[in-house]
Amino acid sequence: MLTVEQNEELTQVGPGTPMGELLRRYWYPIAFEEDFDDVYTKTVRLLGENWTLFKTPKSGRYGIVAEACPHRRASLTYGVVHEDGIRCGYHGWKWDFDGNCLEQPAEADNQNFRNRVQQKAGKAEVMGGMVWVYVGPGPAPELPRFDVFVMDGVKDCGYATLPCNWLQIMENSVDPHHVEWLHGQYFEFLGQTEGFDAPKAFQKKHMKTGFDEMEWGILKRRVLEGGSEESDDWKIGHPLVFPYFMRVGGAGIDQMQIRVPIDDTTTWKLFFSNHAPKGADLPEQERPVFYEYLWKDENGRFITDYIEGQDVMAWVSQGAVTDRTQEHLGRSDAGVAMLRKMFKENMKKVANGEDPIGTVREKHDRIDLPCEKDKFGAEREFAEAWITLGSSRYSPIKQELLDLHDSAWANREKASADA
Amino acid sequence: MPTPDETLDSVERTRIMAELPPDPHRLPARGEWFAGDAERHLLDRPKFCPMCAGDLEVDGGIATEYWTGDTRNFMTWCGDCGWFGEVVRFDMVTITEEEH
User: Fold this and answer.
1) How far apart are CA B2 and CA B20, in angstroms?
2) What's the pTM?
3) Same structural domain for residues A228 and A374?
4) pLDDT by residue (tens digit) across A11-40?
């Protein structure tokens, strides 16, 4: 339970807010490369502000500037993209990638005027088929090349825009017990009443849970009924990657769950998966496959017969911003309290001029994150459940993914029989 | 003092509210079902760090309240000295005996 003020401080992400200032120290995916196959500009919204994301026609370089032109506030998304920046379509004022004003056609060429008008600008780069942006103060950190985005494999990514604050989604990631209830008992109840088999792996009881603060966030561990501290779920665990990811995986699947704070009441929620089961012949893939997943049916009810749909129901039904003055936490919510403390700690670091946790300043090729390989002790059942009973059910390559895992399994069985 | 899950009649509520110090903090609207719990949280949460006595509010700390049995626990972090631990409010100290 928190006070009104504490709740507001943790959930407001706009410019000048303590959380907003912290979140602006990180890179965010905000669009797909394929969005720019036919257009050179796009309006995007991030951390409560609107931005114009643009791609130059020849060099393919990406830039991001605040959407409203500083002249008369028209949208720069309807401007002319040059190799050195973007020109407002309204009166031709031209801006470079850093927001410097290069030209003011209708004004006398007076450098004093141009130099006094600076547009807000950020940095933009591509990784994993997505356009990532940084809109905080300089010097910008390196874009962290987390393993899932750069490893070999077949990638697909489900996305949806959810009408709720990003923090209540993050709190789900340090709440292990919900798995045996929401994805276990509730799923079983639905299966019995609607006539399908819910996966049993998610119904195992939690015997012990643990949370460790680590360099990227919070490492979550669990011992499930039938398991032990030698199981991957405890020995390795998986991390909440501060401030807006969760890394999960198992059975040859690795996933980053991404929660981009669009504004105080909207989150862009992505499930970015890489499939590389041992023994698979991995096909070439030019770009990840992006698809929208559904979370409400035509009658306005939450779609809860798949795993992520259940999570979405739990997040969105809390309200646009969870009223934490009305909550009643228990001991099992220790991870949630720990996460709130981590946010406060890093807000303070930023206020003191320090880098928050997870800031990467060194050039690198790949950052490997700890994650279970054998998840819930379920192996093959886990991979099949992931694809058919998760958001991948909406993936255009769902059958290819099932075939990939099947053939990998067959190859492994053959190799072990031959051995 | 009443515990959060007791129903307060209007006389008792008026008495308690009169004891609340002047506070710039806002509360949920009176009609909210758990407004009483929110009031108690505002009143009872730790204000100062148990280690350095720093002001938890001024120095950027946080206390998240959670309940176990009859106790109210405050997982507390001090923004001044970094102390991270729990402050537990007892009305009665109870101990569960292990099998023996």
Assistant:
1) 14
2) 0.90
3) yes
4) 999 999 999 999 999 999 999 999 999 999
